[in-house]
Specification:
This protein has a domain of 54 residues: Ribosomal protein S18 (30s Ribosomal Protein S18). It contains four helices and no strands. The mean pLDDT is 86.
């Protein structure tokens, strides 16, 4: 049996280079050194919600655990007052 050479296994074959994404070492609130996430700051809070009104996860939003809890409390306060929707 005769084997054909595959371009993937050749030393000179072209391969796609993987892009490395630099991850942030701190969340946006820790970088800004905010101690309190304001429930009236709707521009910031709306970036952390989906279009359906659900809160983004820590992995998706990039927040640390402590800041995610502060954001969650601020969103719930804003929903209770009526500044943000529960669902849409």
């Amino acid at each position: 049996m005769k084997r054909t050479q595959n371009t993937r296994n050749k030393p000179g074959g072209k391969r796609k280079k993987k892009r490395e994404i630099k991850e942030q070492s701190q969340c946006r609130f820790c970088r800004a050194k905010t101690k309190y996430v304001d429930y009236k700051d709707l521009d910031v809070l709306e970036k952390l919600l989906t279009h359906r009104g659900k809160i983004f996860s820590r992995k998706r939003s990039g927040n640390c655990a402590g800041c995610q809890r502060k954001v969650q409390l601020a969103i719930k306060r804003a929903r209770f007052i009526g500044l943000l929707p529960f669902t849409s």
